[in-house]
Amino acid sequence: MNASRRAVVLVSGGMDSAVVLAMAREQGFECHALSVAYGQRHTSELDAAARVAAAVGAVEHKTVVVDLRSIGGSALTDARIDVPTDADGHVIGEDIPVTYVPARNTIMLSVALGWAEVLGAADIFCGVNAVDYSGYPDCRPEFVEAFERLANLATRAGVEGAGLRVHAPLQHMGKDAIVREGMRLGVDFAATVSCYSADAQGRACRHCDACRLRADGFASAGVADPTRYA
Asked: 141-154 and 104-119 helices cross at what angle (nearest 10)?
């Protein structure tokens, strides 16, 4: 396949990135799946990322370690900070929650950008969403647009080549629409893990923001929820 049709796809192990990977494959891209072990609370989502990459047909799957536990500042990287749940009165999207990981999407996209240059890939895909989400600032369309500008300013591929594109196809889709798109593409949602506090077997807590948004998406789409709960 021509190198111009190569793409780096960020795959977290969750439902959104699984759908994005399937969308990129449908568009004819040779997909190189990238996961980041950033010191998250559990590794079951990384196990899920490997399953998803293999099932959807990525040509390879790479996991890069960037340990953000060393700077802390998030409930997802610091066990001393509790993950908000529906039991503590937390309202999704009311403010930026403590599950926000400082600069996480910037860092992940930067790693993806570096690998894209090495591969000669002009396209990067990510699963950020600005509709049904927890209020993270690095999920907004303005962020994706700004990162694409940065990518084309800061790289050889951007300055001397044909340029780089950052795709965020789920940006304006609700979780129900994402579920329906995944069903159309044959995504096995049972293989994905979205929960912030999943156990070692990948079973979800049912009460964190990620679980609540995921469950609402399946319910609104009229699709049976395949999530395994603890």
From this structure: 40
